[in-house]
Amino acid sequence: MKFINYLESIAGVSIYPLISMMLFMSVFALALWHVLRQSKESISEQKNLPLQ
Amino acid sequence: MNSTVEKFAYDNRIVKNFAIATALWGAVGMLVGVIIALQLVFPALNFDLAQTTYGRLRPLHTNAVIFAFVGNGIFMGVYYSLQRLCKARMWSDRLSNIHFWGWQLIIVAAALTLVFGYTTGKEYAELEWPIDIMITLIWVVFGLNMIMTIVQRRERHLYVAIWFFIATWVTVAMLHIVNSIELPVSMLKSYSWYAGVQDALVQWWYGHNAVAFFLTTPYLGLMYYFIPKAANRPIYSYRLSIIHFWALIFIYIWAGPHHLLYTALPDWAQSLGVVFSIMLIAPSWGGMINGLLTLRGAWDKVREDVVLKFMVVAVTAYGMATFEGPMLSLKSVNAIAHYTDWIVAHVHVGALGWNGFLTFGVLYWLVPKMWRTSLWSKKMASWHFWIGTLGIVLYAVPMYWAGWRQNEMLTQFTEDGRLQYQFLDVVNGMQGFYALRSLGGTLYLIGALMMIVNLYKTAKSGSFLANEDAEAPALAKSYSIHGKEHWHRWIERKPVQMLAFSLVAVGIGGLLEMIPTFLIKDNIPTITSVEPYTPLELEGRDIYIREGCYTCHSQMVRPFRAETERYGEYSKAGEFVYDHPFQWGSKRTGPDLAREGYGNNKKSNAWHYNHMADPTSTSPSSIMPRYPWLLTTDLDTSLTASKIRAMQTMGVPYTSGYDLVAVAEMNKQAQIIYDDLLLQQDQILIGEKGLSPNHEIIALIAYLQRLGTDIEVKPINTAQK
Questions:
Q1: Nearest-CA neighbor of B84 among B184, B173, B153, B169?
Q2: CB burial of residue B98 (10 Å; 0-12, 13-18, 19+)
């Protein structure tokens, strides 16, 4: 049986792919936004931790 | 900022203990690997003994290298780096010691039970339930000690390596608990709570993520700490490491179903596994590039320093294996590679290259440091590097070739549309490859033994520093935020938040993947003709599991012409509903057995008897071990009734009170097989103790004859009859 048959048996199924998509986009967007906005000094401080 | 400088000491003794355990268990695990590799070339090396047979030693090898070698390697690296990154001694020396000795006890218990045939029959999770509980307790001890050390740290930031350690801890805990849910029948026997397709999905969700969160994330943590240490320069991009971390743990958890492509697993779950596997390339390669670029402009050091040499090959092997993994999850590539030695090659590039070489690099760096001396012989370490590298090449290349060839031969048709080769022809064609692989493994082992000698001599020449003095200002209780504070920092500074977020990231994937399989009935269409196993078949199945038959035989006919021609009708999800645990297998060193009792595959009882007594008597040049003990040992029926009751508890529809008549039913069925064997006794290789309806072989024959028969079209009594 194809995927579509299973999906049809779930009520309100159309929301699931949207939720999945949103989850993914937001995780990556947030992570990216976060790393790009950190200051150079802070990044440099953290990356040097093993060498202290 | 509180300016009081506090004095404390790092605990090196625990690191030393784990380092010794890593090296010793590593050698043992690799030695068993070499032995089983040689058994495929010289079947006589199975010694006709239950405890030394391939089916029991192979789980011993995998468990030893994963949980004993890499496991101790993880703890060695974590205990060393965590203390320094937190500027704090481990929270509790007592917990450290309980963790160390508890883990070694688990390893010894695992080795003994596996060799003596106590196994759950689920790959990489073979250990029986009391050991599963021990693992859980010791894992909690480790986690508590780690989290409390982080809480008591003297450094505000949690370096990225610590994130990887936290994610490892929480995810392995989740995987281990969910996959180990089983119903005990006795102290050393249990059945997986899940059955068939669901068991397969949970198992490979676990199996894949054991690779991800036991063999990968903790080692990435080690990479992020020890490569900068060894190269004496910070990681190339700390920003990339943040993306690497979140992307990796978020995506990895979804990819498990790629181990089950073209099986009876529902299509949607297979597709989900493929998509996420492809996405994994991005964070994996991000991590690899980050590791390698750390050495930009310092490649001259790599030429000189054996530690860096090992690490560079390790990270390169990581890159190769994590490129190959997604490629293998493409359905068209998977159709070729699955069940063949290609997968064995892929796994060993990761295991020997990534885990092995990174461990060696860390050991070569740590031992001189903790014993306050320099390496006893740089030349010997360099030889180890080259012998080990050659070993990997000699292992991987023949196995890739063998895998490709297996697929070529098994899918080859003659002009008139018949299969060109018997399975045995393929087995015969593998001997050269298997011999070369054994040589590769042996070289790798020799290298590891050279390292042990070298490190022992190094330790002898130095003096061990058990408590390494350090000082750092205490962390101020209140932390004033300067300027802009980013949301993520709130997570990065707090271990418990980090743990919770990691759990959410990995939990979402697991839940979305599994809930539909469990809740939507249509996912496993019922087949009315599928019936529970008879008591004798059930006992036979337990023998099949005990002997580790699944390490060489699959029970899953994929919907390909080459497979349906060879084995019969392709497997349906509904056929496995009473299989606790599922036995689909992951490698075909021998043929598939899903339809062993049905259609063209069906053989006589006498054939099976002879085949187990001496496989070459029915299949000349077979490399399967002999199983003489099955011909002389009486079947233990003391647990049969409890086994039936356990099955009933898990929803297998035996009629009520069936447990009470199970043994009588069993004897009846055994008698029929025995009578049939008696008719042909002049043709069979009877064991030392003669023929008996009580011998284990009878139960195994009953099980093998049952395989695949559920979909048989039963003759209908018509009026003419």
A1: B153
A2: middle
Look up residue B703 and give its amino acid. Answer: Y
Q: Which residues, at least 6 apart from B84, have a Cβ–Cβ distance to it below 8 Å?
A: A50, B10
Return d(Cα B269, Cα B377) in angstroms, integer.
52
% of chain B exceeding 70 in pLDDT: 94
The complex's ipTM works out to: 0.75
Q: pLDDT below 70 — which residues of chain B?
A: 1-3, 477-493, 515-524, 713-721
Give pLDDT tens digits for B70-104. 999 999 999 999 999 999 999 999 999 999 999 99
- Is residue B708 left, alpha or beta, with left meaning phi > 0 and alpha meaning psi from -120 to 50? left
Q: Which amino acid is at A28?
A: F
Task: Tell me how far apart the alpha carbons of residues B281 and B283 are, in angstroms, rounded to a whole number.
Answer: 6
CB of B443 closer than 8 Å to CB of B388: yes
B293 part of contact set with chain A, CB < 8 Å:
no
Question: How does pLDDT run across B471-523, given as a tens digit for each residue?
Answer: 999 887 655 555 555 555 566 567 777 788 788 877 777 777 776 666 655 56
User: What is the three-class DSSP state of B587?
Assistant: strand
CB–CB of B594/B554 below 8 Å? Answer: yes
Residues ≥6 apart with Cβ < 8 Å to B509: B250, B251, B253, B254, B276
Quote the tokens at residue B291: 């590791």
**Chain A to chain B Cβ contacts (< 8 Å):** 83
Q: Hey, are the CB atoms on A50 and B84 less than 8 Å from each other?
A: yes
Q: In a 10 Å sphere around its CB, with 0-12 CB exposed, 13-18 middle and 19+ buried, how is residue B633 labelled? A: middle
DSSP H or E stretch at residue B190 = strand B189-192
Which of A19, A40, A46, A52 is the mutation pick for testing B, counting most B CBs within 10 A?
A: A46
CB atoms within 10 A of CB B474: 15
- C-alpha B339/C-alpha B403 separation (Å) is 9
CB B329 within 8 A of CB B261: yes
C-beta of residue B548 within 8 angstroms of C-beta of residue B54: yes
More confident residue, A6 or B553: B553
The mean of the pLDDT values for chain B is: 92
Strand residues in B12-57 grouped as ranges (E): none
Residues on chain B touching A48 (C-beta within 8 angstroms): 234
Measured distance CA(B87)–CA(B296) in Å, rounded:
28
Residues 196-215 of B with CB under 8 A from A: none
3-state helix, strand, coil in chain A (%, to 5): 75, 0, 25
Facing B235 at nearest CB: one of A9, A23, A47: A47
CB contact under 8 A, B239 and A43: yes
| Structural domains of chain B in order of their starting residue, each with its CATH number | 9-464+489-513 (1.20.210.10), 535-711 (1.10.760.10)
Instruction: Report residue B709 CA to chain centroid gap.
Output: 31
Helix, strand, coil % (nearest 5) of chain B?
A: 65, 5, 30
Stretch 504-543 of chain B: residues touching chain A, C-beta under 8 Å: 505, 508, 512, 516, 520, 522-523, 525
Burial of B62 (0-12, 13-18, 19+ CB in 10 A): buried
**Cβ-based contacts of B508 with chain A (< 8 Å):** 23
Degrees, nearest 5: CA angle B617-B619-B620: 75
Cα torsion B311, B313, B314, B316 to 10°: value is 120
Ramachandran assignment for B297, one of left (phi > 0), alpha (psi -120 to 50 degrees), beta (any other): left
